[in-house]
Design a protein that fits this description.
five-stranded antiparallel β-sheet, mainly beta, 194 residues
């Protein structure tokens, strides 16, 4: 019929917090594209769709997991000794990182269409994708994002720059994004491995 499991008493979860590991700001960190977890064990497409709110996607981007290959040099402030840390740590892209498609006929909360906003109109949302393609030798014209394309990315290596940005969360009452008071890792550039 069904399995019967023994009871497990879980510790009090009240004070459990997510450990936010902040990597030092660094340039030219060698990473490898790795498989993602879950039902799609390969890179996937991220979108800003929200089924609960009835929102259809108006942004789609590459959802990649990067693994730091060699680590990052970190200096001990007390001893001055430098050691390599963060080797094997994973970083992931978010919806606004490697945009492959955006509906420019969408308006922001103030009613301004993306097509009338210089950042979108001047294709600044595609700069990261262009850098990514150049870093991997992917042609800039005629790019087609398919399951095969996503699978072929696994194992490829490139250099990234890592910065920090303020973490935000959506206020459910206003819909505005407000800072949480913490920082998060942010990939700021993609470059070819020399």
């Amino acid at each position: 019929m069904f399995d019967v499991n023994d009871q497990i008493d879980v510790v009090d979860l009240t004070d459990v917090k997510k450990d936010n590991i902040l990597i030092p700001v660094n340039k030219n960190v060698k990473v490898r594209i790795v498989k993602t977890q879950g039902e799609k064990p390969r890179p996937n497409i991220l979108s800003n769709a929200n089924a609960e709110k009835g929102k259809q996607a108006d942004i789609k981007s590459l959802g990649l997991a990067f693994e730091i290959v060699d680590g990052i040099p970190v200096t001990n402030v007390e001893t001055g000794e430098e050691t390599m840390k963060f080797k094997g740590m994973k970083l992931s892209t978010g919806t606004m990182d490697l945009i492959v498609w955006a509906d420019l006929n969408v308006a922001n909360k103030k009613g301004v269409l993306r097509s009338d906003n210089n950042w979108w109109k001047n294709k600044q949302h595609l700069v990261g994708l262009k850098q990514f393609c150049q870093a991997l030798g992917i042609p800039l014209a005629g790019l087609k994002v398919t399951d095969e394309f996503l699978s072929e990315l696994i194992g490829k290596e490139l250099l990234i720059d890592i910065g920090h940005e303020k973490e935000t969360v959506e206020n459910p009452e206003t819909g505005e994004y407000v800072p949480t008071g913490t920082l998060r890792n942010r990939i700021t550039a993609y470059k070819k491995v020399s």
